[in-house]
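Data deposition worksheet. Section B asks for the primary sequence of the deposited chain exactly as it was used as input, without tags or linkers unless they were present during the calculation. Section C holds the resulting structure in token form. Section D is free text for depositor observations; keep each observation to a single sentence. Incomplete worksheets are returned to the depositor.
Section A, Depositor: J.P.
Section B:
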Amino acid sequence: LNIFLLFFIIWFKQTSQNIRAMKLIKCILLFVISANTLYSYACYYPTYTPGEYYVFYAYNEKNAPASEPSSTDTNISEWQAYTSDQATFEDIRQVVYKYPARDMELIATGNIDTSGEMKNNTFVRYLLKTNDTEAIQYLILAKQCETARAKRTDPWWYPTKDDLENKDLQAILDKALAYQGTAFKTRYLLQAMRAAFTMDQHNLCIRLWEEHLKNQPESSIKRMCEDYIGGVYFQRGDYQTAINHYARTMQTSGSFW
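Section C:
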């Protein structure tokens, strides 16, 4: 009996220690898993192209022609036609879709790295050779508009007082509406609409569409603008009108410059 009690005491002691150890290990594992999960959710967020911000679309991909170009490609082709084919398709893509505003500002001053990629880009060379400040200034504004909108989708964004008052977007809107030229009229109206849409100035979006864009020739820019009009009516609960606008655009507009 004494031997039995001794074995029982030893077994119980070891078992208790094992149970405590297992509980400790379990707690540590749960903490690590939870911390990793929290970290993942805190640091991960989806990214979208500007055409996907607050924009929906109705598009039957099954019945779409296989050879139909994307809006991005159409937009690049429109820029290429603007240069009279003096810039390559890929170089235009790089400038329009990849260069940040600060690179365009360097181009505006002509202060670019003579040994870098920018110097060899055919679109950059065209802009500098023709001294096309109108196109450069437009691209600067478009990229500033995208930056202002993109930061508002970042879950780590902590707005300042100026941000809450949308001073950056309002300045972009004012500048876009002040454009008096003709070459980039629809493109500036697109930037105005994007800024106004982000600030929930939906009546202005509709006015810009009805008075300036509705009767313009078909283009990637017009389709992009109509996407936003569809978004306005969607947010208002007028789903039939929204569907009509989305259906006319035929596809999401990846061309946002």
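Section D:
The chain has a mean pLDDT of 79.
The two ends are 89 Å apart (CA to CA).
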